[in-house]
Structures are given as structure tokens and as C-alpha cells.
Amino acid sequence: MQSNAQGEPRIDQGNYSVSTLNRYLTGTTFPASKEEVASNAESNGATQELVSQIRNADTEHFGSAEEVMQALPAPPDVG
User: Fold this and answer.
1) 3 or 61: which leads in pLDDT
2) Which of 21, 56, 58, 74 has the lowest tally of Cβ within 10 angstroms?
3) Exposed/middle/buried for 50, CB within 10 Å: 0-12, 13-18, 19+?
4) Which residue, 31, 41, 39, 40, is CA-closest to 62?
5) CB distance 13 to 69 below 8 Å
6) What pLDDT, on a 0 to 100 scale, did the predictor assign at position 75?
7) Who contacts 53 (Cβ-Cβ below 8 Å, separation ≥6)?
8) Tell me, what DSSP letter sits at residue 3?
9) Is the pLDDT of residue 79 over 60?
10) CA-to-CA distance for 64 and 12, rounded, in angstroms?
11) What is the percent of the chain where pLDDT is above 70?
């Protein structure tokens, strides 16, 4: 498993660690619309890239933070 610049582990579904994503989703009550999730992430300091990825997800609602993580694009293959 790779680590980000802060030493947090990254998971295969995206460029954000679970702990980082959970921090960005603080205050989100699931199930939630993708706009609500994106807004909360933005308010909690998420990057514009992450906010855009949430807003561009193929679903309109998320049932959990795990569903948000699964909806994020996979990181590019650097191998």
C-alpha cells in the first residue's frame, strides 16, 4: 500500500486515505445527496479536485462514506 505526502496510507479506490476522506465528510449524515457530500467536503477543506470528483460521480446519493470512496476514480497506473 502506498502512502501520501503526510504518510497516511492510500487505498486502491482513489488518491485519498480513509481517514482523510472521513475528515472531509465530517458533519455529513448518510444517506446524502452527492451535492450535500460535495458541499460538506468543500466546507471541511477538501481539494477542488476531490469536490469535483464527488460532484461528477455516477450516483446521485451516497449511503455511506465507503460508497463515496468507491465512487472516486482510481489513481493513475504509474507502473
Assistant:
1) 61
2) 58
3) buried
4) 31
5) yes
6) 58
7) 14, 71, 72, 73
8) B
9) no
10) 18
11) 72
List Cβ neighbours of 67 (8 Å cut-off, separation of 6 or more): 30, 59
SS (H, E, C) 16-76: CCHHHHHHHCCCCCCCEEHHHHHHHHHHCCCCHHHHHHHHCCCCCEECCHHHHHHHCCCCC
- CB neighbours of 72 closer than 8 A, spacing ≥ 6? 13, 14, 15, 16, 50, 53, 54, 57
Q: What is the pTM of this model?
A: 0.74
